[in-house]
Amino acid sequence: MSHSRIRRSVPALAAACFLGGLVVGCGGGENDSPDDALRVALLTSGPVSDAGWYAGAYEGLLLIEESLGAQVSHQQTRSPAEFDEAFFSYGSSGYDLVFAHGFEYQDAALRAGEEFPELTIVVSSGGRISDNVRSLIFRLEEGSYLAGMMAGGLTRSRVVGMVGGVAIPPAQGTFRAFEAGARSIDPDIEVLEAFIGSWDDVAAAREAATAQLNRGADVLVHNTDAASFGVFQAVREANGDENPVWAIGMNRDQNDVAPEVIAGSAAIDIPRAFLDVASRFTAGTLPPGALDLSLGEGVVDFIVNPEALGRIPADLLARIDEARVAIREGMLEVPRIEFLEEEPGGP
Amino acid sequence: MGGAAVEMRSVSKRFGSVEALADANLSARPGEVHALLGENGAGKTTLMRVLCGMLRPDGGEVLVEGRRLPPEGTRAAAAAGVGMVHQHFTLVPSLTVAENVALGTREGGGFRLALERVHERLTELEQVTGLPVDPGAAVAGLSVGAKQRVEILKALYRDPRVLVLDEPTTVLGPQEVDWLFGVLRSLVEEARTVLLIGHKLDEILRVADRVTVLRRGRTVLAEGREAVDAPGLARAMIGRETTPAARPARVEAGERVARLKAVGALGEDGRTAVRDVTLEVHRGEIVGIGGVEGNGQRELALVLSGRRRPAAGSADLPATVSLIPQDRGAGGLVAGFDLAENTALAFHDDDAHRRGPLIDWAAMRGTAHEIVTGFDVRAPGWRATAQSLSGGNRQKLLVGRELARAPDLLVAENPMRGLDIAAAAFLRAKLVELKGGGPGAEEAGGAGGRPAGAAPGIVLFSTDLDEVLDLADRVFVLVRGQLIAVPEAERNPAGMGRPMFGSEQA
Amino acid sequence: MIRQLLRPRLRSRRIGPLAAGVVALLAATLLAAAGLALAGYDPAAAGRALVSGAFGSWERFASITLVRATPLILTGLAVALAFRAGVWNIGAEGQLYAGAVAAVWVGLTFPGAPAWLLLPGAMAAAAVAGGLWTLVPVGLKLRAGVGEVITTILMNFVAIHTVAWLVHGPLQEARGVFPQTDPVALAARLPRLGSGRLHAGFPVAVVLAGALWWLLRHSAWGFRVRAVGASIRAAAVSGRIHTGRVVLGAFLLSGMLAGLAGGVEVAGVTFALYENLSPGYGYTAIAVALLAGLNPLAVLLAAGFFGVLQAGAAAMQRDVGVPAVWVSAIEALVILAVVAADRFLRRGMAGKGGG
User: Going from the N-terminus, what domains does chain C have, and what CATH number goes with each?
Assistant: First the structure.
């Protein structure tokens, strides 16, 4: 009995030795950074290699480092249990500003905001705010409306499709606007909609896209992250000389991801938005509550794929340009879904 | 000396603190059946594993046909022409006979090609040995005896110069033993050497040309067949005189302790293994059930001991039933448990061995100590696990534990198998004592207190017909799951053999 | 004794494997360092980040490392107990989710209840739900002989998809916007220990590890579990052990421990139910249990090891900028090295058997 007991605890001892060795070998190192530098961190719950939502955020972080001389850090969290931990880590090691890039961080951000009053947290698409927790809301609907117009003008089958990640208000909002844009060209267009329940499941996205193509759709838009590759792939495979099929990028300028089938991208200039926020933060002019960034600020737009220009009717491009001006000047109201829990009081 | 096929000189081997071989010598000539005898733990199997290159000896040397073998390495031994049939089956149940034989042979070409050759060779071997085995049959479906035949064929397939068989007869019926010995004789006629490990003296004396006896790792006797007899060999093995087993006196049976009514049971494969068995067992009697292995013994023993619910009929059983399963304790002991833990399997929820929900390990060690001393279990130490004991000592530990429960009914399946002469004689005496309600019950019953005369009923399953005839008050045979009573007038090997092998008579 | 230790044969048995273990660890460290250097990161800085991330200060150690270790201890115990009984419960992940759902449900449904009632109630509900989640595999195993490996894995999928459905449907936050539940009532949360994030779930897990160790070693129940796990046939033949009942009990208790892990995670860390609540605790638990040799006390060490590794890995991302993919690869490398070292050491210890 005792023999087997000893034998059983050997591996645990081995692990303990390993840890002990680490401590002795490396010694407890403390961060020794200059106190005066601006320290900015980014949290994402997906890989920054997605050529989309997260990649834009990471670019923004690097832009802040470059432009403002800030000390920056990034962590990819894998589960909700890590949200609080990440805020705790940054909060307790003297960071000034944390970009939490996704609604999923909002509850943990509120808790961390209470615990670390010195810390400012900006939650992208966040629905909850407090004194030092802000929400950064991208009016991507405005770009998506223009994308819808493009789809409405390009479709021959008069069926367009939308493949979404998780059915949350910001994503649903872009689809409502897309729908409205398409119907502004042709009120009888049929619009298909599917949510795959994940932001980065390429296979599921491809399956959903193929299903919509089979039901006659010939222009597909997505609102996912890495899963967008699945949509583009499905479109690329269905595309033919006789029956051209189009895809539309979202979140980030994805025109070069699949230049032969993408007509354009409804994009957020996330790096620019982040730099904007960080600059205002250092200047002390960051407004409390939610920060809306839209076409007007140049943060959101619809970017036509230059390689596809020759295949797009000129009058359609002209109509899109007209609509862009109308939105910017407040002449055209784009449908959207409000999801902020409490509107910020005061300016 | 130059003519020896196998020459092992001063071989020694130690496992931890146990000296398995001290000064073992063996010399076997071509063309002879050479028997290797000894008690359990005497080192027979260890010596043969050294010969086959499976164990590295600490000292001594091994020569096969005059050439010295390297101290370890099964390939070198196999190349020198040594083949071994192990005590435990080494067959893959899901493969066919031919596939099993092909495993481990190095035929040229792909596996398919090899299989065809194997089929051919097996057919040849079948003619030579007169041994019917279907090369295409799946091993899982074979009887124990047939599996043994496959093991032997597998060894013969490699055309060994020296064939080692480790207690091959324990799982065979009388006719199969005769067949096996015939094969061995024909092998030695081809000037091969057969090394036969055994413990049944009369069997060994029937077939052996020469005999080597090991005792506690040393060679104590090496003689030709003509120079030895059974009592002399027994003396050499044990180191002292044995008293011949006394045939137990018939005792008046007491009250009924168990009753089976029209019981049926299923085997592991889900097929009916036992059908329509009706049996009553009384205190103070030994019911002997003979039969060839694989005829439903295991299933009936499980039902009779309450370890398994019958699939049909009813079983009316007493509170405490002891079961000694076969397989040298492997089925009843946990290999990785030490002596006290294995004892606890039977006593952990016993009032005398626990305090509330906790096990009283001190009391448990006490009981284990009684068993170990009472049954002469040789263990390297207190913390020894069951797997570190030799097969015979495991069996003694198991038997001791089961008797210590002071059962109302004792079901034993081949309990003597694997025991050496002294231990078998001791167990025999115990059984006889027990059924008489004598001191054996009191002494072994650590849990204490049973009224005098409350002897258990005993059911003894055995493939050894002599054992059944010697010990039992009533005799049955189990044939294809059916229990057939042997009338008093037929109480002899022939009378028992008739329902087992011949046409069934009314 | 000393003379014995100096005997060459013994030395080769004990120290040889030890050296092999050390070599395995060194090799893993060097490989990881070389990989990092090739990818353009400073291995020394990465190592420092790993250590300071896990041990940098007491607060950090308690708030990150121990918090990470807590669900691994509980699920590790669940797996260790099941495996000791010979039950291959691969379903700790699903049982954890079942427990999390139950704890959240209780925490949301009775917000007015006092803490002394609500918190234990939520934890009990979590344990019961985890136990109930094993019922299908248990029933199929005992009644129909269906292997629990497959069924428990399948039940993991059922649990994960059920949680997804719940946070989009019946349990979704009151505003119905985001796929998560509302946070549970304050009274349903585990109290914090000290100023950091360490919650009362950690000492509970430690006490449970001690209790399970003690029960397995000293109680009749623990003995039955060990016997059934070591040889179900010998246990059945002994006639004193109802093997089905032992399997049932160990399986249920295993599920309850995993369910409690889910409850503790919700009540101590996330406070709400999310789709991907667990980063695979139930699977990592298998590695934890095996690394601990199925010994409940060693589970504490093994879970601590994984906690350190994960806390340190996150710090490597933050402080040195090593990408998450690299960090995962290094984690896996270190685990492999520890397992390999363990094998070498164990082989050395087992050298005495046989015969």
Answer: 41-344 (1.10.3470)
